[in-house]
Specification:
Number of strands: 5
Helix content: 25-40%
Distance between the termini: 42 Å
CATH class of one domain: Alpha Beta
CATH topology of one domain: dip2346 fold like
Number of helices: 8
Strand content: 5-15%
CATH architecture of one domain: Roll
Structural class: alpha/beta
Shape: globular
CATH superfamily of one domain: dip2346 domain like
Length: 213
């Protein structure tokens, strides 16, 4: 285990926060310029404020991601992923003293307030036949607040059974989220929220209707 006092500060090494934001922004712009369709960008860690990155990278500004995304506010949309099974189990998130649903709702509202982008809510790992009432109550509460909620379902054999996953009974059973922007920021409440699966499922369904993504 490394003592935090032994880790050299990025600032002492010449770390330039403004340059970091500029380089990251340019990298996203360059990737967008490579094709005419839609790009899904999965956001690891915290979307608005990343204290973990700041801890492991001394000198890193925990608000850097928000500044980078601000440059794309006119061309971006947000998909916020939630695991329906975590709602049913009331998963306890680290460093949170609120219940899961309350924590998730506060994250969604913070993204909308601080970025000006109203997230689409993606409910992952839904049961295709029936869902616990607590999950349905959460969906209804979001819809009452004028959030658009989309459902994606449990796929037997995921992620090994590629042929089944890439079929109408796999990704094909999920809602295809109708998006209009070229950059899609995909984030979630915590690990296992289904961010990667959401990106892959959208790529599959986009291809069916000739959207390059």
């Amino acid at each position: 285990m490394i003592n935090s006092h032994e880790v050299p500060s990025f600032k002492k090494l010449g770390f330039d926060g403004a340059k970091y934001i500029r380089v990251q922004t340019q990298a996203i712009e360059d990737r967008l310029a490579q094709f005419s369709g839609r790009m899904y960008l999965e956001i690891g860690g915290k979307f608005l404020h990343d204290p973990h990155a700041a801890r492991v990278l001394p000198g890193f500004d925990p608000a850097s991601k928000k500044e980078i995304f601000a440059a794309f506010s006119e061309v971006a949309e947000v998909l916020f992923c939630v695991n329906a099974q975590d709602i049913a189990a009331n998963r306890q998130l680290a460093n949170q003293d609120k219940d899961y649903v309350t924590t998730v709702l506060s994250m969604i509202q913070a993204i909308e307030k601080q970025t000006g982008m109203k997230p689409h809510i993606v409910m992952n790992n839904m049961d295709p036949y029936s869902s616990p009432e607590v999950v349905l109550d959460f969906q209804r509460s979001l819809q009452k607040q004028h959030y658009r909620v989309w459902e994606r379902y449990v796929i037997d054999g995921y992620p090994e059974d590629i042929d089944f996953i890439l079929s109408e009974d796999g990704f094909g059973q999920d809602d295809h989220i109708p998006l209009t922007k070229e950059l899609i920021l995909v984030t979630g409440a915590a690990s296992n929220s289904g961010k990667l699966s959401t990106c892959l499922g959208q790529l599959y369904q986009d291809a069916l209707i000739d959207i390059e993504s």
